[in-house]
Design goal:
This protein is α/β, with parallel strands linked by helices. The protein has 16 helices and 8 strands.
Length: 396
Amino acid sequence: MPTYKLTYFPVRALGEPIRFLLSYAEIPFEDDRFDREDWPKIKPTTPYGQVPVLEVDGKKVAQSSAISRYLAKQCGLAGKDDWEALLIDATVDTIHDVRAKLAAFHYEEDETYKATKRKVADEVVPFYLERLDAQVKDNGGYFVGGALSWADLTFVAILDYLNFMNGSDLIEKYENLKQLKEKVLNVPAIKTWKMPTYKLTYFNITGLAEPIRYILHQSGIKFEDRRLTFEEWPQYKNDMPLGQVPVLEIDGKPHPQSRAVCRLLARQNNLAGSSNEESYTIDAVVDTIDDLRQAISQYHWEKEPAAKEKLKANVDTKLPFILQKLNARVQKEGGYFVNGKLSWADLFYTAVSEMFSGLLETDVNKDYPELKKLVEKVRSLPNIKAYLESRPKTAF
Ligand SMILES: N[C@@H](CCC(=O)N[C@@H](CS)C(=O)NCC(=O)O)C(=O)O
């Protein structure tokens, strides 16, 4: 297999269709995104003073459409005959015409010209988009021949850039283009490649991070599970947005607050309900469980005997009251907390009830058959089961 290196600015724009095609073709490549200040140094080394440049076994080639067409031919995305290849080329050229209209005003510095060029784009771009949308409708959900081609990949890959220049979502009104976008982003090789990187920082205990770990594992998301020792913590504390953990970094951006993180991941992975009302019910269940978590952890960490006694009495009242309500809910809702289907409330409870049992040194679910069944069901979900078998053994 030849070696491939793609050189481009650290943005998607014209590099992205090539990245989509290399990913679709499962061709490993070096994704060289250079810093802008290095451009004057790089420019003279490129064939025509422009990027993207693809190097194949060290041979440099420029022009993004030519490169895309070359790669598409190698992975069956260039049409089944010359006629289809022509229609694909015509579509890609049209997409680049749209790009040129948007770029004309976006990069214009003179405000008067900018306004005139924006006006032109506002008239011409919808004209093109209507036709592109109809083209997808008439061709079985793709631009050409009822099958995926590099025109589809190019459109979806470059759309973020077009939207950025336009200042809003260009395809909001175009149902066929919206469906095309979903289809392309769900092509397995593209989906995997586009997946963000995740890094979770917490201590080497279950605690507040465990529901996040459950949701990530259940959703099949790979992540770095960074577990700090308590001795290491002081040197990391100041780097955390709120001086606390867990913190989930997504593509390097830190996200604090464990339940907000759970909710974000749950929404992205269909675990947060399918209506506002369902999402609310899930949140309410989680908040109820968290009331209990707070009572148990306050009691556990309290050192002063009299205060501890009081907190123990609080747990002794709250625990049966809340668990009995939760048990009844699972019975009524068909084996899960909400509407007979798995949600992040089920994952949350399974993760934290295990901690309750650890802290209180008794199986808290033992007198609540519905909760016990729910926890067993969640623990035997294939991804969760695999995680439980491989995770570090911790005190709680
Ligand atoms: N509401 C926050 C609470 C976070 C929290 O209390 N984290 C504790 C660990 S469980 C922590 O970072 N403690 C160390 C510190 O505050 O220095 C969340 O849910 O993420």
